[in-house]
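SAMPLE LOG
Freezer: B-3
Tube label: C17
Construct: single chain, 157 aa
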Amino acid sequence: MSHEQNPVIDWRLQRTWGEVAVGDTLPPLRFPLTVYRMVMAAGANRDFNAIHHNTEHAQSTGAPEMYANVMFLQGMWERTVREYIGLAGTLHAIRGFRMRSFNTAGDTVVVQGRVERKWIDEAADPAHRHRLELQVWSENRHGVSVGPGVVEVSLPA
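STRUCTURE (predicted):
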């Protein structure tokens, strides 16, 4: 996997529901898992289990290396989706988030997605009726490591 940088996002721009079509893809985002990033993530989300920041301990439990925890991986999904839906979009649900393999220090996790469904939810609050179902997954050098799962969002009309 490439270690190229992610594009800079112009947060003044806002995607609208009318601009989206089923089959559209979310721009992939790359997350290099350095030891520094793993330690910072463990501290930031207060998951001090040594499997997430200590190679020797992680290996003593059968893992190949220290590995990213669930909150860190869900944060990658949230950032990828947020960059697609913009600041006025709303995340409503994450379903099917399943870890298939370790995302270890030294890996680069690439989060990707596509629009699977688009509809108007008449029962929802008017500000949140314009819905999208996004299929999202994470890949590393071994293939799909998390997901695929569903992220349900709404966009401004």
